[in-house]
Every structure is written in structure tokens, then in C-alpha cells.
């Protein structure tokens, strides 16, 4: 039930129905009432759609214990008896008569929840290990970054130390940590909290139970998923994927990864290697990929692939064009230099990027023809660059019925951290009695 | 509950619990009992796993009304009173004392259901219009075939006529028709029973409500889905997909189609064009496809694609090799001639088939990397030919974690008809009170 009627505070409570109370009217009424039961979630300044949406998320599907505010079931005879005492010849005026107000308040307040309930998010990347305190609103309250150690022992020790520090800080920041979410490279079994098989970028990181040590140290529930899947979860909770039943996120960074949401849930597949979107092949031969195969979109369109081509052009002295600032040594030439060169009219750089955009676009068309999402979200550093070429390839090569799809660029700063946090924030507030 | 205890017939009935009674012991007991309630499904000759599996499918998730066989709740005082009348100094012998047997029998019998409950299946292909009576066991009891008319009016009229004839025949064959399932080429909205957009092979077949005219004429519920999806449903109910949570069916016939099962359900996608598996692209350029794009696996590996290559070789007089019977005119040269030529050592034909197998294999690897099924089922006339090459490409090009997948060849004769029937047989027997 949603609204500002006192039914929500009284009658709905008797049935255990979840209620969202909008505005301040029933807040005042509540002050006069004693039996304000825990079924009511107050959204006092219901000025933004977003706040009501949050409230709905928190209350949806819940059942509360029924409050017993209506006594022993003998109201009718009592009312009849009372009515008989009234002199109907005289005018009547409604007066309020409530029992005295109790001290405690067991109802919930959306502002209090949004401001204090938080998650600890851990992101294990090829280079960095990051921990953050993330609020229910998706605000990164505090962030910690360290180089990701090369060995299992050093890494686990650092994770636990950083988490413990963050938990102490959270208390001082008035953040109530509900649990820990971990985003990591590699293939993950989220049911068991185990990293099955890592990417080449993180060593000593296969067959690792990451849930147990963190849970033992912090005494909070722990969720784990692959970073591509976490990025999709971040879009679902805080980004363009909010309220979208079927969508796909593709991250174009150093590598290419992503996640697929179908019927509001991630597709994990039978051995947890679904949504390996970087390894969609768009060529029977094509360039070699780090996975050992050929023609994967990662081998055409990732940061590493573009850097490889930039270096090749630079080695042949074909990269620099008029207007470009001096380039550094070949080792530090990057995808961004290639993109700059193309913008300044370098036709060889343009050709590389055209092929990369085509490969990524064809890979995405393959996604459309397989799971038919209603939205594609590009994230990662190269997202803005690829949006137009991908939309163009879809127009040229997708089946008519799949061409109407939207391709958007993510506006989230930290998809991996926000996705890791969302596992905690979603699951711990989805209580069903 | 499953077993042969009389608890199933008595106590479970009182709670409305679904029971599967195995063997004949309780059948005999039943003859002596009057209150055999409808919660019991009898599987008398429980000799095959399959029959018990069918029984489980029928009973799973059901709730029955509670039978009131235990009277008014005053049994204890009555028993005590009775016990006091017994002379415990004399020996006691158990004797049975049941109320008289009633005439009617409201329990269910698995054999009766499997033999009589049936579906009407309609398959609308590019060439033929077929109708069949399909039993709960997946047996095609009777089949009717006509050329698929070219106009909407003639086609609808023929469908209705064929269905009406089949319904009359079904009665004489002791088949109880539960509903009509329609498998058709093109994109289908199964919720509405509407064909949104047809393939080029069936004319005047877009934006067609097929449910209403059939339902109006036959007075039975009607289900509709795309033929690729129906093939997947057929595998789920009657084929290799039985009990498999995530699998994919790929049909390699004139064209290439298929269906994806995830968490035991078809993926339809946001605009009902998921699982357009023939239009997975494995080349940035590649041969032209009927869909207007290039490099689709259908353009490499379908019957039409192989026939095109066979014709090309034949035109250049490069197809015939020693040992082949005389070939007909180029127009009638087929994919089978190409396969024969390759078997007899024609290296050009071999190369065409190698590329086709590679393209299909890479397309299937793309499926593995996207939805990670645990089983791939190949069906259609070319399935047996492609099984080995596909398995080989998976070994070479899939990620390690996806390589363990099984690739099987379907052993169903009529996937489209069986899948159409399965929509009826599954939904109508999945009653939940």
C-alpha cells in the first residue's frame, strides 16, 4: 500500500501489509497514535520519484507480523451499547481520543536507511585492489586503493586489513555496514563465493574460497561475482538498467567483458562462464586473442588490441600526424594516441578503429540475435568512442526486429565497486518473512 | 509422496498431498477402500523410470482438496470407549472392517492419461502445412500433410479444416485433445498467439493472430511459438533435453534456427527475436545471407548455402568425382551431393564443408560464451554431418571452462510437431489449485 492515509498505519498493520507512507500527514497522525507498527516505511519528503522508487524496492514482497490493534473481536456489541447512550436530539461533533504515546518507535524511515545503511565493496583488478564504503543511494562514502599483491597470501592479508580499517571508519562515518560484496576478474561461482578460474591478469587466484576468510574476519555476509557481472548489477541498481528487464552491459577497457540481465537476473550459465562477451568471435581467422583463440572481439576492440596497433604504427613511424603533441617511447603509446591520430586525419589509424568498431558492433549484433535485450550499455574508458560505430553496425547488420535497440554509454564512475555493493544492498534488504 | 504405502491413499489424501502409487499393492488395497481420493496417481507397472518420471511431471506442484475421511475429530474418546469393552485376557487377531465399495472411481491412472490425453499439433513450414494428433507419451497417433497455401485466407481455411477433421478422428481413436499447439516459421509473440513477422518462405504471414480463429473453431486453448523454439521444447519434453536446465537446440536444415532453454524456460527476448541462431555472424564480411547481412552461419552452413556451393562446383564441372552416380541438372544438385563428393575425395567439396563446419562451430562457441548451456543438441537433416566438426571447433576455440560441453544429435523424428504438442501437454497438465 502506498499513500498518506491512516489506513496504512492502522488497518494495513493489522494485516501485516507493507506500507509506504508519503509526505508528512501520517507522520503527524503517527505522533498521536501508539500502534504505529513496523509495516510502515516513511518517505516524508516524497518530492522525488527516486526516493519513492527506493521505498518500493525496500518494501516489495515483504510480509510483516500482524499487529493486534483491534482487540478481542467484540467491538460491535460495545459500539451498539455506546450508540444507545447517545442523545440524537442534540448536535454531534467529532473529537479525537487516543491512548498515550509510547516512547519507542519501531517504524522505519527511508532517509535514515538511505543515509546509514551501506555496503563494503571490494574490487580485485589486474592492477589495483580497492575497497569502498558505498551507501544505499550508491554514494561512495570512502575509497581505499592499494596495488593488488602478486601472491595469494599477501592479497588475502591486504583484503582483510583494508576491510577491517573500512569497517572502523564506517562506524565513525555513521554508516551501518550490511555485508561485503566482492567484484573480481575471472570465473566465479557466486553461490559458493568461490573464484573458480582467474584471468591471466591476477595470479594465484584460481579455486579460491574468498567468502570464508572475509566472513570470518568481519562477521558479515559476503557476496562474490565476476567484474563483468558486477558492472551489469551496478547498471541495474544505479544506472541506465534501472527497471529494465532484459539488458546487456559491455565493458571496453584493457580487455572486454560484460554481463547479461534476463528477466531481471544475471545469466550465469551451467559452469558460470556465461557472458564471456569479450570472447565472442567475429572472424573465422582474425587476430590472435589472449584466450588462445582467434577473431574474438577483445582481439580487435579492447584497449590492449588498440595499443598493439598503435605501437605497430608508431614502430613504422605511421602514427604521428600534424597537430599531435610529441609521442613518447613506443612502450607507452596507448589506445588514446591512436584515437587522437584518427581524429587528426591519420587514415591508417582510422582504418584500425573502423575495423575495431565493426568487430565490436558485429559481436553486439550476435548478442541481440541470441538474447534479444531491450538495451545495450557500453561502459569502460572506450565506451564513448564506440557508441556511434556500434549503433551504425546494428543498423546495417541486425535483423529488422532487433534494430530498434538503444545503445547507451554508462554514466557510472565505478561500475565494479557499485555492482559489488549492490549485491549486498539488494539481498540484505530483500527480507521476506 | 511416492511409494506403495496405504498412507498415500489415506493420510496423504486428508492433507491434499499429491501421491504417486507405485505397483499394484495399493491398487488391491484400493479395491477394499472407499475413500480413494483424487490425490493418488496410480503407476501400476512401475517397471520403467520413464513412466515414474511422467507421473512426477503430472503430480509436481499440485495441491488437491483435502479429503474428509477422518470424521468429526472425536475418534479418541470413541477408541477409548471401544478399548474398554475388550477382554484382554483372551488372544486378539487383527481383522479388516471396511465400508462397502462405491461404484465410481475419482483417482487417476497414469496409463489411462498417457494413452488418451493428447494434443493437436500444427506445423507451418515453408512448403508444407501439417497437423498431427500427439499423445502424452510423444507418439504421433495420426498425421495429415498438405501443401502450405500461398495466401492468408486459403491457409487459415485449410488449417481449420484439417484441425476439425483431426478432432473428429481423435474421438474415434480414443484420444482426448487438450488443446492446439502451433509451430510456425517467423517471429512469434507466444503470449498473444500472434505471428509478428514471418520468414520469406511463408507469404502473407505477418501480424497474424493465429490463436483466435483456431480457438473459435475448435473451442480449445491454443499455444503458438516459433519453430526453432518448438524444436527446443520438443527436446525438453521428449528428447536429450529432458531434465536439463540450460541447453540449446540448433536446427540445420534448409535454413538454420534454434531455441535456447535457460532455467528450464525458453528465452524469448524483449521483442521475441531471441535465439535467431542462424544469424549469428562469424565474419566481418563473408558470404551474403538471405537476411540482408553477411557472414551469418546460415550463409555458410545451411542446406541452401551448401546447395549454392554444390551448384557452383557443378557449373564449373568440379563436383563429380569417381564413384558418384550421374548427377542431374544443376538446379537439382543438393547439399547431399556435396557431402557425397567430399566423402569420395573431392577436395574442393571438402574445403566447402570444412568452412561450413568451422562457421557453424564458431557460431556455437559464441553461444557457449554468451549463455553457457550444459548441452548442445543438433537437429535437422544436416545434424549428423556437423556433430564431429562442431565438437572439434569447440575443442580448439572455446574457453577452457566451456569446452566440456556435450554436443548431441537429436533422435526426434518430428521436433516441430512434438514441440507444438508439448506446449499443450505441459501447460494443460500443470494445474495448481
Note down, in words, how this protein is organized.
Chains A, B: One of its GO terms (molecular function) is N-acylmannosamine kinase activity. Chains A, B: It comes from Coregonus suidteri. Chains A, B: InterPro entries: ATPase_NBD, ROK, UDP_GlcNAc_Epimerase_2_dom. The structure is a homodimer of 433-residue chains. With 433 residues, the first copy, chain A, is of the alpha/beta class. In chain A, the strands form four sheets. Chain A has a five-stranded mixed beta sheet, sandwiched between helices. In chain A, strands 15-14-13-16-17 form a five-stranded mixed beta sheet, sandwiched between helices. In chain A, strands 1-2-3-4 form a four-stranded parallel beta sheet, sandwiched between helices. Residues 30-35 and 99-106 of chain A have low confidence and may be disordered. In chain A, helix 6 (152-172) packs parallel to helix 7 (211-218). The first copy, chain A, folds into three domains: 2-106, no CATH class; 117-238, Nucleotidyltransferase, domain 5 (2-Layer Sandwich); 247-411, Nucleotidyltransferase, domain 5 (2-Layer Sandwich). In chain A, 38% of the residues lie in helices and 19% in strands. In chain A, strand 13 and strand 14 form a beta hairpin. Chain A has helices spanning 11-15, 25-32, 49-59, 75-84, 110-116, 152-172, 211-218, 227-238, 297-301, 303-315, 335-343, 347-371, 383-397, 415-429; strands at 2-3, 19-22, 40-43, 108-109, 117-124, 128-135, 140-147, 176-184, 187-189, 194-197, 208-209, 222-226, 247-252, 256-262, 265-266, 375-379, 406-409. Chains A and B meet through helix 12 of A and helix 13 of B.
Amino acid at each position: 500500500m502506498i499513500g498518506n492515509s491512516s489506513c496504512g498505519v492502522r488497518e494495513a498493520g493489522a494485516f501485516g501489509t507493507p506500507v509506504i507512507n508519503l509526505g508528512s500527514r501520517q507522520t503527524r497522525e503517527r505522533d498521536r497514535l501508539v500502534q504505529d507498527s513496523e509495516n510502515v516505511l516513511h518517505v516524508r519528503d516524497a518530492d522525488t520519484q527516486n526516493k519513492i522508487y527506493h521505498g518500493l524496492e525496500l518494501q516489495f514482497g515483504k510480509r510483516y507480523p500482524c499487529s493486534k490493534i483491534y482487540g478481542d473481536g467484540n467491538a460491535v456489541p460495545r459500539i451498539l451499547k455506546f450508540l444507545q447512550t447517545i442523545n440524537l436530539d442534540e448536535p454531534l461533533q467529532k473529537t479525537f481520543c487516543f491512548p498515550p504515546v509510547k516512547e519507542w518507535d519501531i517504524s522505519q524511515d527511508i532517509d535514515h536507511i538511505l543515509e546509514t545503511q551501506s555496503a563494503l565493496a571490494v574490487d580485485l583488478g589486474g592492477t589495483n585492489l580497492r575497497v569502498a564504503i558505498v551507501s544505499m543511494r550508491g554514494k561512495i562514502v570512502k575509497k581505499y586503493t592499494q596495488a593488488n599483491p602478486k601472491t595469494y597470501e599477501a592479497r588475502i592479508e591486504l583484503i582483510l586489513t583494508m576491510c577491517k580499517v573500512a569497517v572502523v571508519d564506517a562506524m565513525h562515518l555513521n554508516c551501518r555496514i550490511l555485508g561485503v560484496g566482492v567484484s573480481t576478474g575471472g570465473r566465479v561461482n557466486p553461490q559458493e563465493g568461490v573464484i573458480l578460474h582467474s584471468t591471466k591478469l591476477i595470479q594465484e587466484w584460481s579455486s579460491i574460497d574468498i567468502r570464508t576468510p572475509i566472513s570470518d574476519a568481519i562477521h558479515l555476509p559476503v557476496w562474490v561475482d565476476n567484474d563483468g557481472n558486477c558492472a551489469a548489477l551496478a547498471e541495474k541498481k544505479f544506472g541506465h538498467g534501472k527497471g529494465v528487464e532484459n539488458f546487456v552491459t559491455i565493458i571496453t577497457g584493457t580487455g572486454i567483458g560484460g554481463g547479461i540481465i534476463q528477466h531481471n537476473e544475471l545469466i550465469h550459465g551451467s559452469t558460470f562462464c556465461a557472458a564471456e562477451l569479450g570472447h565472442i568471435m567475429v572472424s573465422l581467422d582474425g587476430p590472435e586473442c589472449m584466450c588462445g583463440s582467434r577473431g574474438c572481439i577483445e582481439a580487435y576492440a579492447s584497449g590492449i588490441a588498440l595499443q598493439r596497433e598503435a605501437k605497430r604504427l608508431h614502430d613504422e613511424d605511421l602514427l604521428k600526424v600534424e597537430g599531435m603533441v610529441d609521442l613518447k617511447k613506443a612502450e607507452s603509446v596507448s589506445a588514446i594516441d591512436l584515437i587522437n591520430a584518427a581524429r587528426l586525419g591519420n587514415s591508417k589509424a582510422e582504418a584500425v578503429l573502423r575495423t575495431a568498431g565493426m568487430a565490436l558492433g558485429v559481436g553486439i549484433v550476435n548478442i541481440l540475435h541470441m538474447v534479444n535485450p531491450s538495451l545495450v550499455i557500453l561502459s569502460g574508458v572506450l565506451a564513448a568512442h564506440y557508441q556511434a560505430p556500434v549503433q551504425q553496425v546494428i543498423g546495417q547488420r541486425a535483423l529488422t526486429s532487433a534494430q530498434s535497440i538503444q545503445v547507451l554509454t554508462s554514466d557510472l564512475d565505478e561500475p565494479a565497486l557499485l555492482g559489488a555493493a549492490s549485491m549486498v544492498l539488494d539481498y540484505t534488504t530483500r527480507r521476506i518473512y
